[in-house]
Design a protein that fits this description.
Elements: H1 10-18, H2 24-37, H3 46-52, H4 62-72, H5 89-101, H6 105-115, E1 120-124, H7 135-145, H8 151-171, E2 175-180, H9 191-207, E3 211-216
Parallel strand pairs: 1-2, 2-3
Helix pairs in contact: 7-8
C-alpha cells in the first residue's frame, strides 16, 4: 500500500482511496473498466490521473465527467474540479499554463497563439478542422495519423482537442474556417462517425453566430492564402 501523502487535489485523492484504490495506476484501470461497463470507450493514463490530482486539475470533457461522477457517486465539484467559467481568474491562468506545458508540440503552438487572439481563421484541405471536430472524429484522426499511440495517449490528445473547442464556443470568439469540399467526404473512422461529424458541423454553424464556415469547391485556386490566428 502506498504511503504517499494526499496530492494537491485532496478531494479526488481521498475519494479514490476511499474506494480502496491506493495507486494512480489502479485508478486508471478501474476508470477504464467502469467506462466500459457504461458502454463508453474511454481510458486514462497515470499521467492524466496525476494531472487530475494536481493543484489546478483540468476540467474533464463531458464523457469523462459522466464516468467520474458515476464512478464516485459525487458531482465534480465534490471531487476538486472547478469549471473554467466558475474559477477565479488567477486559477484559470494557472490551469491554462499547466495545459500549455503538457501539450504535444503542435497543440502547444496553437494554444499559445490562441491565448491573445481576437479572432481565429483556419484553412483545412484534408480534414474537418480540429476546433469543429466531434470526439469520435478527432480520435479516429489521431489514431490514423499516429498508429503507434496507445489508446490512453490518444484519449489524452482527444480530450485536449475537445477542451480547445469548448473554450472557443464558450468565449464567443469570432472564427472563420475554410474547408475544402473533399474533406467532407473523407472516410474517417466509419460512416456513422462521418455522419455525426457532418451533423455536428451543421449544428455548430446554426447555434454559434460567431462561427463562420466556408466550403471551398473542387477546382478553386489552391493558392488561396492560408488564414491563421489574428
Amino acid at each position: 500500500m502506498s504511503t504517499r501523502p494526499l496530492g494537491a487535489n485532496a478531494k479526488l485523492v481521498s475519494a479514490r482511496r476511499a474506494l480502496g484504490l491506493h495507486s494512480q495506476a489502479g485508478f486508471a484501470d478501474a476508470f477504464e473498466e467502469h467506462a466500459r461497463a457504461m458502454g463508453m470507450r474511454l481510458a486514462v493514463s497515470v499521467r492524466q490521473v496525476r494531472r487530475w490530482e494536481s493543484t489546478d486539475p483540468p476540467y474533464p470533457t463531458p464523457d469523462y465527467r459522466r464516468v467520474l461522477e458515476d464512478f464516485f457517486g459525487k458531482p465534480l465539484s465534490a471531487l476538486g474540479f472547478t469549471a473554467f467559467d466558475e474559477a477565479p481568474e488567477e486559477q484559470m491562468s494557472q490551469a491554462w499554463r499547466s495545459l500549455i506545458t503538457e501539450q504535444p508540440e503542435r497543440l502547444h503552438r496553437l494554444m499559445r497563439l490562441e491565448t491573445g487572439t481576437a479572432s481565429i481563421r483556419s484553412y483545412e484541405t484534408t480534414f474537418i478542422p480540429g476546433l469543429l471536430q466531434t470526439a469520435d472524429y478527432a480520435l479516429a484522426i489521431i489514431l490514423m495519423l499516429d498508429p503507434t499511440l496507445s489508446m490512453a495517449e490518444a484519449r489524452e490528445r482527444q480530450q485536449l482537442r475537445m477542451d480547445r473547442a469548448q473554450r472557443l464556443f464558450r468565449g464567443g470568439r469570432p472564427a472563420w474556417f475554410i474547408i475544402a469540399e473533399t474533406a467532407l467526404y473523407q472516410p474517417i473512422g466509419n460512416p456513422e462517425v462521418l455522419a455525426d461529424q457532418l451533423d455536428h458541423l451543421g449544428r455548430t454553424v446554426s447555434e454559434h453566430p460567431s462561427i463562420r464556415v466556408q466550403i471551398l469547391p473542387p477546382g478553386r485556386d489552391s493558392r488561396h492564402p492560408r488564414p491563421a490566428c489574428s
